[in-house]
Write a structure and sequence with these properties.
Structural class: mainly alpha
Helix content: over 70%
Oligomer: single chain
Number of strands: 0
Order of helices and strands: HHHHHHHHHHHHHHHHH
Mean pLDDT: 86
Shape: elongated
Low-confidence stretches: 404-417
Number of helices: 17
Length: 417
């Protein structure tokens, strides 16, 4: 059920964007009409051309505004349908031009949404528009002496022919919709299974860290949750909403458990040391980010997809970079540091401050937040700290399940900064 709902949302959004673009380009049709009339290719009036242009412009403008500002997707979907049917019917009612394939546009476009109900509605509205336009056209052709037939003699056989064609069109489109919908849902189900397998592989690697040091294992689980909370809050901001889509957030959260993978190769006498690290030991500890990056690059390309691999590498390598450029291993600063790593840095240090060590008690959440505020613009990205302050209840909830950790790396890093 979850896959089908996600499928409907994505399909509708993508189709709305496509229809909005099609209607935008439909304005060119009216330009072609004007050029053709200027060269006397046909005698359609300027008034009629401008009316078609006006209708096309209004609907294309509304569609693009609705899509741009994420107006209700169902409303946007039916607005596009009404626009296509209206423009087609008006063009078809003019006795100076003949349209045929255009009558099928509404039904054909409805296949993009892969919804049987919508295809039936679109076909019905398209057929009603067709009948109305042919009726108007039969009257005008008779009045202008463009045919010797009476309106009735023209209208009935033409509508009868189009009706047969429309029935075949509807049957075909419904079959296409059904087949495509099943195919896409099957592919999404398969992709979900692959993603689950990838996630299990990542968890296996992350559990290697936990097998060395259970404290680090608990740290991995909590920081992953903090990353998810921060990503969701950042995605609400104007600056990051286009970057942090649901898909990207899922990828970042999936990659987060591997940020400390390099600790696997840190000697036990340093990784599990109950006291403060010496400068030499701290330099050894700092190598875990490069080690983690190299391990991910060496062992995971055949297991996970390129996008997940990219986030995993960046978060492992850069999660100790500082916003002011004083971090390691590259000394990057500001936006040079990948966004996912800047988020990981905040989550990483936050958990270190909130966790009990052998040589210190844990800080309270309020004390930890004060420390992190003071590091804003130095260790941390100000945008992320601003979002952190908005999700304190969620952080408190995760922290209430906090278990003691035993690794002073993050605090020592901040102390040296």
């Amino acid at each position: 059920m979850e896959i089908e709902e996600e499928f409907l949302i994505r399909t509708t959004d993508r189709s709305n964007r496509l229809i909005a673009n099609v209607m935008l380009y439909a304005n060119l049709t009216c330009v072609i009409f004007l050029v053709a009339r200027n060269f006397k290719l046909f005698s359609m009036s300027y008034e009629f051309t401008l009316m078609c242009w006006g209708i096309s412009f209004v609907f294309s403008l509304l569609m693009n505004i609705f899509v741009r500002f994420n107006v209700n997707r169902t409303v946007t979907m039916y607005l596009g349908l009404i626009g296509v049917v209206t423009l087609t019917a008006i063009m078809g009612s003019n006795s100076r031009i003949g349209i045929h394939i255009t009558y099928a546009f509404a039904t054909l476009f409805s296949c993009l949404y892969l919804q049987k109900k919508y295809t039936i509605v679109a076909a019905s509205m398209g057929y009603i528009g067709l009948v109305i336009s042919i009726f108007i056209k039969s009257q005008s052709m008779y009045l202008l002496d463009l045919t010797s037939d009476t309106p009735r003699d023209y209208f009935i056989p033409v509508v009868a022919g189009y009706t047969i064609e429309y029935i075949l069109l509807i049957i075909t489109c419904l079959s296409i919709t059904k087949i495509l919908r099943k195919t896409v849902l099957d592919l999404q189900e398969r992709n979900k299974r692959i993603r689950n397998l990838q996630f299990q592989e990542l968890q296996t690697f992350a559990n290697l860290v936990e097998s060395r040091d259970n404290f680090s294992g608990q740290h991995i689980k909590r920081t992953s949750k903090y990353v998810e909370i921060l990503c969701n809050e950042l995605s609400k901001t104007e600056k990051y909403k286009a970057i942090l889509t649901d898909e990207v957030i899922n990828r970042i959260v999936e990659a987060a458990p591997l940020h400390d993978l390099g600790k696997i190769q840190i000697p036990d006498d340093i990784l599990k040391k109950p006291g403060k690290l010496t400068p030499e030991e701290y330099e050894t500890m700092k190598t875990h980010s490069e080690i983690g990056y190299n391990m991910i690059n060496a062992y995971l390309p055949e297991i996970i997809d390129e996008e997940l691999l990219m986030y995993s590498e960046m978060m492992a390598l850069y999660h100790h970079e500082h916003f002011d450029g004083t971090g390691y291993p590259r000394g990057l600063e500001g936006n040079q540091i990948p966004l996912c790593a800047r988020i990981m840095t905040v989550a990483d240090v936050l958990d270190a401050l909130l966790s009990k060590r052998h040589y210190k008690d844990s800080f309270s959440l309020e004390e930890a937040l004060d420390i992190m505020r003071n590091e804003t613009g130095k260790t941390f990205d100000p945008d992320i700290i601003e979002c952190l302050m908005k999700v304190i209840p969620l952080i408190r909830n995760v922290n209430s399940q906090n278990e003691p950790l035993d690794n002073g790396e993050e605090l020592e890093e901040m102390a040296e900064a």
